[in-house]
Amino acid sequence: MSPNKARKRLACIRCVLDTVKNIKTNKPLPKELCFVPHEVEYVVSNDSTTGSNKHTSLSFKVWNAPMKRDGFVFGKITVPETEFKTFSLVVTGDEYADDMGDWIELTKDSFKHVEVNADIKATHVIEGAWILWHARDNPRSENVPLLVPKHELSDGANKQSQSKDDIFDGWTSALIKSKQDDDKKSKPVYKWMNVVESNYMLRIIPSQLPSNADMDAISKLSTPPPNWSMETDEELVRFLVDNCKTHGQTMGGASKYIEQVTVSTEQEFASNLLDGDADTFWESDGSLGRHYIRLQIMAGVIIQKLIIGVDQTDDNYMPSRILVHGTTENGQTKMLNETRIDCTSQTGDVLIMENAPEFYPTVEIRIKECKDDGIDCRIHYIKIVSSKQKQSGLNRALFDKDLMRYPKLESVDVKNRDLLYNRSRALNRFMTLFDSVIQYLLPSWEYTAGTYSCLEAIRQLLPLSRRRQGLIENCLRESQGATPSSMARIFINRHLAAEHLVDPSQDPEAKNSIFNQLYEALRPDKCEVKLDYRWPVKYDQWWECKFIGEGIIDQGGGFRDSLSDLAEELCPSSQNNSPLPLPYFVRSPNQTATSNVYRDCYVPNPDCHQSSRYEWIGQLMGACLRGKESLVISLPPLIWKLLNGESISFDKDYHTIDATEVQLHESLLKAEEEKFNEAFGNILTYTTTLSNGRVVGLKEKGETEYVKFEDIKEFLSLAVTKRLNEFNEQVNAMRCGLEKVVPKAVLTLMTWQELEHRVCGEPEITVEALKKSAHYEDFEDENDTTIKYLWHAIEKFTNEDRSRFLRFVTGRRRLPTPLYITRSKLTTPANSLPESATCSHTLFLPTYTSATNAEEKLRYAAYNCIAIDADMSPWED
């Protein structure tokens, strides 16, 4: 790595750290990250003057404002072919994009190009002028705009001149670079990344923003919206991930950028790769590992994305491992990327390379492996996005939609949704910067910049990263073990396990449980087959079960049954309060309280000190994360956060375990002295009750010392410390097992929600299953109009909506659970919000006048459930 590149990389890391700090403290983001030039000069694209896209003239409608902002056309700009090379248009540097595409706003100096309609000129005062310079997802032009920023045309030349810096080092390079920077102070800068790299380099004299900075536009991106918080940023990221298109939906063809295609065999079918038809394909005929597709790239085309089309129905013709090599203009060949493909689920576009650093005249796609060691391969098509193409910017219209599923965002008035748009643009910039240095922030790399803590702080923002998922999958593949040559054979007596479930007191050590039978049989000192739990994805049966007294031949079903039975023993789905079959987890306090959240969750038993068994549970979690199996254990978010290394707090997280305790703390903080003495005087001691019901002292002789009013904060601080750390021993053991199977770098890049999903699977809640759980009170049957509206609404819900609805009514996120539906009070107005009583699993359903009203109110209640729960809060008694 050249010294100049190293300095730029460190500059980016410094900016990442600054940005993380400012996001956490809700301060303005670095101005360098939010840089916007005051003006940008646009010229006619070279693609408009040559080739199949050649135009004899160009014409642009001119609007007084973007169409989605009630704009209207008041004129046009016409550019004849004779002026293509001399025409230029100066516009403001800020960005704006909507459903139609990307807009640019003309400066006053550019008004001279506009031919204003006579009737408009006579009746309107024109204060702005906008051009739609790039239509959104326009397949006819393959996303190549007719106008381009002039500064982008010289990027290639700039890169060549910058490469000369690489020959300098030490003081010589520093002095020359300093003089170059002084010379450039008066020159305009257009790219925010260049400003970051320049201003965050270490210098004796701190750098300033370029002279052409638009401070008003920078302030819009930098300043957080009013009443903002990091939690709002996290919800905004969820919104963006849920609503923005993937790269595969905006790709163009490749024929425009490829001069010639040469393949290893079957040359007559090579044209199928460029016909854009997913039903045709090129099929090789040769030796495994020697298949290739060689692309001769047109001059000057820098590949931003290289994509191939695959089809999982091709079976063992489907490629599973691909290398991409590029040959430079001086003949040097280098490997650009390696891609592993999931042959079990992936069909369609597969991104095999992105962001090529330079122009490669020849790019070679080498197919090294196919599914199930297949000899030949099939590729259906090739797509390329080049540096000449433009993908549309973030769509402002996204923020005009109903944000009911995102309560923190919905609180922003519709008239002020530009605040969400600008914040999203800033977060996207930050994640682009983060992606440029992500590999230097991971804890598993030999060299890191000591910035692992910054990943913890922004964990919930990581789903915006485009590189993260690829790094996760590559890390999992590189760290996977070999497929075992033989399979462990386990003998399980399910009859004894069933007897244990009926009366666990007869087997206090749970020796007859499925869990213990499996654990003992798979212990390293007893099992003949060494298990590292890092098996490849295609290894989908980890052991073979022989069920004593049963005539079952295990070809995978018995193994999965044993895993399901084990999970059910750890966290029973039954609703009764019968004794638990295993000592490793206990029912969370929320299960026995009238809280309406996470009433189906279990937590580690603070009094269980069998670390080796907790570690094995962690290993099973890791194996599920790597493979296709699920270990359905119902843990609250706080435990998943601890397992994943995310930060937790009592106020924000502990309510998922013991909401009553959190509300008690809030009441004590707000209590006046007189009321405190009446309710707690000579009653409240320096003790707290752990999740398993055991009372512990918070200080020496705390059981006999009463809490005084002036000592409330001390008491609460001690209680919070005790409760947040009560599971440390158990969670640390589980995490130890998890990290034996899954590299720490992978967990660092995942959110706790993703960890839970990959371990437990997606809890599917069907409408039919909900109907089977429903019991009607005050309704004759499900043919009642209001009940019909209810089910019509639920049918339109997503699975996440139904999970939220179930939690709103029952406090549980998964079935089975009873669901009682009764009428609201007679005094309740029609079309009101529903209420619920989670302790009795009851939904109080108002009368609705339409299915649309029912859907709207029920969805709102599902996402804002705590505020309208009809249960009596225990601290209000």
Automatic annotation (TrEMBL):
Q: Name one GO molecular function term.
A: ubiquitin-protein transferase activity
List the keywords (alphabetical).
Ubl conjugation pathway
- Give every HECT domain span: 527-873
Q: Name one Pfam family in it.
A: ANAPC10
GO BP field? proteasome-mediated ubiquitin-dependent protein catabolic process
> Per the database record, which ranges form the DOC domain?
231-411
Looking up SUPFAM superfamilies in the UniProt record yields: Galactose-binding domain-like (SSF49785), Hect, E3 ligase catalytic domain (SSF56204)
Q: Which domain of life is it from?
A: Eukaryota
Q: Which residues form the active site?
A: C839
**Protein name per its UniProtKB record:** E3 ubiquitin-protein ligase HECTD3
Species, as recorded: Clytia hemisphaerica
Lineage here is:
Eukaryota, Metazoa, Cnidaria, Hydrozoa, Hydroidolina
